[in-house]
Fold these 4 entries.
Entry 1:
Amino acid sequence: MPALPSSNPEQFVQGAPVLHVPDVSTTAAFYRDSLGFTWDFGDDAYAVVWRDNSAIHFVKDECGPRG
């Protein structure tokens, strides 16, 4: 891992998107059961799923995506 942050694309290590969803538990269960992710952290308001070296975060938001 780089010692200091850089805009150099060769130093990109990992990204973790945060998706706003109306039902965190149902979304995390879908990613686990249908897409092969591991779901070992979270509750009804916030959860994280993993697959290989990638993580996706879900946060409860009744409004959904904003443009």
Entry 2:
Amino acid sequence: MKTKANLIIGAAVATVALYSCDTKNYTEQDRIEVTSNLENYVDSVENAVQMIPVHNWSVIDERYDSLDSRAEKVYNDLKVEDDNIEMLEERYETAVKNGKAEEENFERTADMHMKNVETWWDKTAADIEKGTKNTADDIEEATQESMDWLEKNFDKLGDESKKKYEEITMKLHKD
């Protein structure tokens, strides 16, 4: 009788242990942590797109997808509603959409300023060949505004624009 009672109790404990291991890999603390991690990341993306116009979107998306996937696993395992994750996903998508729009606007503005400077440079470079010296003092007002904008935003420019800007300013300040 003792053996039979021990077997029944043992089977019951084993069933409970098996059930709890099978369905509860994560805790409430894990849910709080993954939600916080995802929210902090979305916050940082929202801040970054306001401060810096150009981003590596594939790296940003990759990190978001990793955090989102982990959060979904925890929420699914705990069988809780993922309203928090859905809200964060909407915020993230809005931040990315706004960031990409800002990036496109920045690129258009950079191209406009670079074309203005290049046009001026091409027009005045012919004078250099004739022996007329061009200096930074000879820059027209609109071109100077473009030069100032490009200098101010130099770190945010694409590599090609940086190279063109450096070449022109080097030639301009050569003498």
Entry 3:
Amino acid sequence: TFYGDIFDLPNGDVNVVYLTPHVPIAWHRHQKQDDHLWLISGMLKVRCFDPDSGERIEHDMVALPGARKVVVIPRGLWHGYEALARNTVVLQFNGPGKYDGTDEERKDLKDEPWETV
């Protein structure tokens, strides 16, 4: 479940995503914005890759009381995430501008499988 632009900020979007376990929100990248992910509850796996350098990054996150770890995904970097447990909720800030749909590029899981990254 996606709740988009919940605060209607002038310089970005704040979204809340309630995730289904083991269903990846897979490969995409943005040309104009950076993503900031903060895990509110549950367990999350974040994966990123750069096809030019071959670099692959993986973050496993567990929501703990008082924890405020934010994963920042810079514009241009392929990324996705997956809930590893029920009741996983992510707060996402996209900035610096508003998302307008022209910023996002997607990659099919057939071209870049989620499990092999």
Entry 4:
Amino acid sequence: SSGVLLGCCVALGAEEHDVDRWFSRHGEALWQPLVEKFQTYKAAMTSPVEKLTLPLDYYENGRIRAVLRAERAQIFPDGGIYAEKVCVEMLTADGQADGSLTAEGCVFDRKAKHGYCEGPVGMAKGLDRLKGRGMYFSTDAQFIKILAECEIRTRRIQNNFGRF
């Protein structure tokens, strides 16, 4: 059976005020510094590393939570990273694959453990797939927000839309 395709991001099973509270915790002010750094870092990428692989976040037990893989990237003195053709691989606490984020261009703040991506983006976890344009993500808070043209493919929602 094929997955369900939805044309927008939907929060199922939550009251409207719960959804508003979730998004207000991750408002634009939190992400604005990264958005502003995107073009600055991109222009300053004068000596990129090719085919970079770099752990981004760790669990308390010392295992890697997220790994950045990029075709080209540069790490800046303030702890910021600008990367192109990006895949962030997410791992479980026992080291198993737990999904991935992909993007054409990305800025990541290593101290805050969150990032901002421009252009086409995607997320895959199990059989679920999301894609769109532009994305905020936090490895620490386990949060993503696709900014435009969001498309969701999931098998979690049955083809019975009458029960929404």
